[in-house]
Amino acid sequence: MPETPSRLHIGSHDLPASPELSRFMAGSWAPSPLPADARVDAYAVTPARRARLSARFPGERLIVPAGELRVRSNDCDHRFRPHSAYAWLTGLTGEDQVGHVLVLEPAGPQGHEAVLYLRPRSARADGTEEFYRDRRYGEFWVGRRPDLAEAERLTGLRCAHLDTLGTPTGRDATADPELAAALSELRLVKDAWEVGQLQLAVDHTAAGFEDVVRALPRALAHPRGERWIEGVFGLRARAEGNGLGYETIAASGAHACVLHWIRNDGRLDRDELLLLDAGVETDSLYTADITRTLPLSGRFSPVQKQVYELVLAAQEAGIAALRPGASFRDFHRAGMRVIAEGLADWGVLKDAEGDLHRRYTLCSSGHMLGLDVHDCAKARAETYLDGVLEEGQVLTVEPGLYLQPDDETLPAELRGIGVRIEDDLVITEDGARLMSGALPRTVAGIEEWMGTLLHGTH
Question: What is the mean pLDDT of each run of 10 residues along the chain (458 residues)?
């Protein structure tokens, strides 16, 4: 028996291949051209993006890796998603991009030439056996990859075999802070195509929230109802897009006071609230990020309504502060002022001054949104946190109140209630457009919506 080629990823329990099998597998295969890719628009917008990056770094070699697989357990890998900067510059978003690298080579006065180094599909007659034996890259294990010619036609880029890249030198987007910052800052303002992809993500997410409400009776009956909710939304995300934009938060009762509750192992109680923070990621990798806090009975109790309406008033104040030229922090300040005044009115705080309200709000009231749920995170503070809003930016407004179950500064009836309301908005010429308006936000609107979905009644 021949030895297993060292480059193949073979499982410990895989049988060796005889020479006869290797010869038999190498021949008698019909041509199998790559199916046409319908996402032509995704590739059409990338040359202008690369040109903008090129202008920032004249004469320098720029390296933007797609990323590598990460082991989940033993020989099983986590599902792969390309680095956002790589996807933005190439339009390539699939799981077949593992290990690929975009290099912008200096090209004199013309700026840069973009070269895509990739792992083409292995020929079936070259004796490598990769196509049927390699668990990580073999076509019969993980699916078809383009060859070099197909990749060039698809992307419009010059393509070369990954093995010819060697050890690349230059600015690496995953290690060079200046290049990482530039890539984030170039993505701060979305073009019309990107806004369309984000709206698609929002629309699919809204449908997922409707699925969840319809599934509440079964979720309420299950000992881990939060998991049921997570699964229902995950089905919509995988059916309509690439999957989840981030791990779903399905937090019932006091779990809603944990900002990133993703254990989702709790039982649902009809007398409590469900905080659902979830987003569908499109096949182009743009994600929505929406939160609704829902009464599991279909109706808010008086104290639940009290907390919810304060958070809603804060969100309305934040949304009203969005406009081109406004400070990025203005919407957060506007919302937190409402929260602080409300807590003072309740007697929780002595007054609305200072930052003591943060005991109950914990985090910022929003962030940029795009290819990453917390988009453009490497941008410099002066262009993002301390910058001003511009037309075409997409962001969330998501104030919340997290009234911990063991907080003795609170009256007993308020303890254990967590409320967050989060929506996605695009900055327009004179304000902001609510992208997630298909989902109701008011107490009456939510109760009517839930009643219609659960019972066909208002």
Answer: 64 93 94 78 93 96 97 94 98 96 92 97 86 94 93 95 93 98 98 97 98 98 98 98 98 98 98 98 98 98 98 98 98 98 98 97 97 98 98 98 98 98 98 98 98 84
Helical axes 192-214 vs 225-240, angle rounded to 10°? 140
Of 133, 18, 135, 146, nearest in space to 76 by CA: 135
Smallest Cα–Cα separation from 301: which of 217, 410, 417?
417
How far is Cα 337 from Cα 357, in angstroms, rounded to an integer? 9
Q: What local confidence, expressed as pLDDT, does residue 129 receive?
A: 93
Residues paired with residue 73 on neighbouring β-strands, in sequence order: 76
Pairing outcome for strands 423-427 and 394-397 = antiparallel
3-state SS string for the chain? CCCCCCCCCCCCCCCCCCHHHHHHHHCCCCCCCCCCCCCHHHHHCHHHHHHHHHHHCCCCCEEEECCCCCEEECCEECCCCCCHHHHHHHCCCCHHHCCCEEEEEECHHHCEEEEEEECCCCCCCCCCCHHHHCCCCCHHHHCCCCCHHHHHHHHCCEEEEHHHCCCCCCEECCCCHHHHHHHHHHCCCCCHHHHHHHHHHHHHHHHHHHHHHHCHHHHHHCCCHHHHHHHHHHHHHHHHCCEECCCCEEEEHHHHHCCCCCCCCCCCCCCCEEEEEECEECCCCCECCEEEEEECCCCCCHHHHHHHHHHHHHHHHHHHCCCCCCECCHHHHHHHHHHHHHHHHHCCCCCCCCCCCHHHHCCCCCCECCCCCCCCCCCCHHHCCCCECCCCCEEEECCEEEECCCCCCCCHHHCCEEEECEEEEEECCCCEEECCCCCCCCHHHHHHHHHHHHHCCC
Closest CA to 296 of 354, 215, 197: 215
Q: What is the pLDDT of residues 448-458, one digit of tens each?
A: 999 999 998 55
Q: Which residue has the tokens 């569908």?
A: 280
Question: Distance between CA 229 and CA 127 in Å, rounded?
Answer: 49
- Decide if 253 contacts 264 (C-beta within 8 A): no
Task: Give how far Cα 207 sits from Cα of 234, 245, 251, Å.
Answer: 12, 15, 19
Per-residue confidence (pLDDT) for residue 409, from 0 to 100 = 98
The percentage of the chain sitting over the pLDDT mark of 70, rounded to a whole number, equals 98
**Widest Cα–Cα separation across the chain:** 84
Q: Give CA–CA dist 245/297, Å, rounded.
A: 28
